[in-house]
Design brief:
The structure is a single chain. This protein is an alpha/beta fold and 441 residues long. The chain is built from 14 helices and twelve strands. It starts with a helix and ends in a 5-residue tail after the last helix. The protein binds 2-acetamido-2-deoxy-beta-D-glucopyranose (2 copies). One 2-acetamido-2-deoxy-beta-D-glucopyranose (NAG) binds next to loops. InterPro entries: CARBOXYPEPT_ZN_1, M14A-like_propep, M14A_act_pep, Peptidase_M14.
Length: 441
């Protein structure tokens, strides 16, 4: 019965858009929130996912949540974005499955316009950036330049290279040289390797601003900047990010933007493109898939320049956070059911970090490896940083929320996300200082 419906759904799919073409609006799109209750529901969702991947362009119907072969409780709520022409079929198949669902975003286009609205409070300081609205890449670059110009003794900028479309990929360093000329441990943070996950760079620039602008007046911050070097790469995937910010293009773009030979679909998933166990799990070889791993490791310049910069500082870097959204997970390595030998330490520190985060506003995070709490996936940043970068505390935080707004998180949540995430970052920073910091005589 349910298979007939699923087949009907797939047969009705039209090829009106492929990934890579312009998707200028999401008028009439709805986002459904499904709550799987039985193992059969989970099977249904997994089957639906593979059928959709084969047959329906991701900008018509896309399962936003990661599912995997887990218990229904572990899977939790699942968001599915559906274009108007597929809604009747989809809800029919949900009903046939008896899977509970509700419409969580009734009009995706409206939600996107609402999310992008400009705040009335214009920021004149900090290079025109604020944390009451989301900003596009030029504003983030001007914020970076403002920090370098106004805090020259604290902040330096390195252009790591250019993206496929020619945008600068920029790395910031925040730190004071240690008095005795010794090398300090370092903390690396990056964001927006997935273009549509706007809260990731918004949260990261919030914390960056705090480290720099509060240095002069706050002893805690002074300690953190004097004892650590901070490397910050605010937007790993600027081309994809710019595409999500262009009002006539695609807010829900995920990948890079490089042209693929023999395909109309652009880009690859840069969080599957690293060469630690590349294409082993949770990655795709089809260019039109949103988890296309690229034709070979480091096919994407963004990945290549990141790893070169990282390896050049490898002996210094003791902690690495690659921010994503959404789900409220603090992911530990690795993505293929294996664990590093020091996983107990990594998890203990992650639990302390998450407890500090939760203490601010009660926001709850789950701690575990991708295989434990969602699905297997290899070729991503935090696995690479652990295995090849040899960074002890390597994590992927999946920021707010758990599936009310998904990727389209209202800008009112930027500052709370910044405040609570900073608490977690401080716990990890303190751990790195205690473990690797210069010993005091
Ligand atoms: C200094 O910064 C720390 C860390 O962000 C914060 O907890 C503390 O409240 C700040 N102190 C003052 C006086 O603002
Ligand atoms: C949007 O993209 C088009 C085509 O690439 C470009 O001409 C335009 O300047 C972009 N708009 C913004 C606001 O970046």
């Amino acid at each position: 019965m349910r298979w007939q419906l699923l087949v009907a759904l797939v047969a009705a799919a039209t090829w009106t858009a492929a990934r890579g073409e312009v998707k200028d609006d999401f008028r009439g799109y709805k986002v459904y929130r499904l709550v799987p209750r039985t193992p059969q529901h989970v099977d249904f969702l997994n089957n639906l996912q593979s059928k959709l991947e084969e047959q329906v362009p991701v900008d018509e119907v896309e399962i936003w949540s990661d599912i995997g072969q887990l218990s229904p409780e572990a899977v939790g709520p699942v968001l599915i974005m559906v274009s108007p022409e597929h809604q009747a079929q989809m809800t029919k198949s949900f009903d046939a499955e008896k899977i509970p669902y509700e419409v969580t975003i009734a009009d995706l286009n409206k939600a996107i316009l609402e999310e992008s609205r400009r705040s009335d409070v214009r920021s004149t300081s900090s290079g025109g950036i604020s944390w009451t609205e989301y900003h596009d890449y030029p504003v983030i670059l001007s914020f970076v330049d403002f920090l370098v110009r106004d805090y020259p003794s604290l902040v330096t900028k390195t252009v790591l290279g250019q993206t496929y479309e020619g945008r600068d990929i920029v790395l910031l360093k925040i730190g004071k040289p240690p008095a005795d000329g010794k090398t300090k441990p370092a903390f690396w943070m990056d964001a927006n390797i997935h273009a549509r996950e706007w809260i990731s760079s918004a949260t990261l620039t919030y914390m960056t601003n705090k480290l720099v602008t509060e240095y002069a007046t706050n002893q805690t911050i002074q300690g953190l900047v004097n004892q650590l070097d901070w490397y910050i790469l605010p937007v790993v995937n600027p081309d994809g990010f710019a595409w999500t910010h262009n009002e006539t293009k695609n807010r829900l773009w995920r990948t890079t933007r490089k042209v693929n030979p023999y395909s109309n679909c652009l880009g690859a998933d840069p969080n599957r493109n690293y060469d630690h166990r590349w294409m082993v799990a949770g990655a795709d070889q089809k260019p039109c898939s949103n988890t296309f791993a690229g034709p070979y490791p480091y096919s994407e310049t963004e990945n290549l320049v990141l790893t070169e910069a990282y390896l050049a500082r490898q002996s210094q870097i003791k902690a690495m956070l690659s921010f994503h959204s959404y789900s409220q997970y603090w992911l530990t390595p690795f993505g293929d059911k294996t664990f590093p030998p020091d996983i107990a330490e990594l998890k203990a520190v992650a639990h302390r970090a998450v407890n500090a985060l939760t203490s601010q506003f009660g926001t709850k995070y789950k701690v575990g490896s991708p295989s434990e709490i969602l699905y297997d996936a290899t070729g991503g940043t935090h696995d690479w940083a652990k295995a090849k970068g040899l960074t002890k505390y390597s994590y992927t935080p999946e920021l707010r929320d758990t599936g009310k707004h998904g990727f389209v998180l209202p800008p009112e949540q930027i500052i709370p996300s910044g405040i609570e995430t900073w608490e977690a970052v401080k716990v990890i920073a303190d751990q790195v200082i205690a473990e690797f910091g210069p010993t005091l005589d």
